[in-house]
Amino acid sequence: MGDLTRDTDRALEEARRVRDDNRAGGRHRRAAERSIGRESRRLKSRHFGVKIRNIVIALFALWVASGVIGTILGGIGFMGVMALIVASVVALVVLGKYPKLKVPQRADLARATDAKQLVGRTELWLEAQRPALPAPAADMVGKIGVQLDALGLQLDGIDPNHPAAHEVRTLVGEALPEMVDSYRRIPQHLRAEERAGATPDAQLTSGLGKISDEIDRVTRQLAEGSLDDLAVKTRYLDYKYGDEDMALPAPSISAPTKDPA
Known about the structure:
By secondary structure, the protein is an all-alpha fold. The protein has two domains: 41-102; 103-236. It is 74% helix and 0% strand. It is built from eight helices and no strands. The N and C termini lie far apart (126 Å).
């Protein structure tokens, strides 16, 4: 009787675990469909625009060709109209799916030529990895996407040989993908087992948190130059035009008095 009870408890626990995994997987799939940053959203929008353009061109070509054929033959008939409709539907389905958005490979991250390209490629790559990550790490990926957008704005226009730009390329293009790849190489059933004081799931989340902190530090460091520049311009304006305390009082205008008769 005791063995049967234990078996029943194990079966119930396994069922709960499967249920929780399915729910978490559903959340991950919904999260994977969302962009983690502005640059990845921009790349997706541009890709979607290319699909719409291809569909419009294909439909226009089909209907123009059917019109030309109909003019030459004196009409395309019922079968011709049906063939045109079928061809239009096929074009919509095929061109709506293809070409698929190309997810950057890990090697593509390090080869990015400018800040926007590096940020956009990294965000797309992280979005593709997110469904395979534990929930806390997936949430951290979303935070990193927002930080990458801010970092990209600071890097825009900076010399690629600048020490900060090199540090970002190493951090985002090498350290971040290497950490995620190292985690994904671990068999799934071993990711929740504690080793060296922590599970791989916890180690990944902690490592992503450190990378997030480092991205924030570099962003603030780069922003200090802009803040200093703004302070200098403000002091210059105060010096040239004065502030409210130094402004001259406006002259008072009194009503004119009449000369005594």
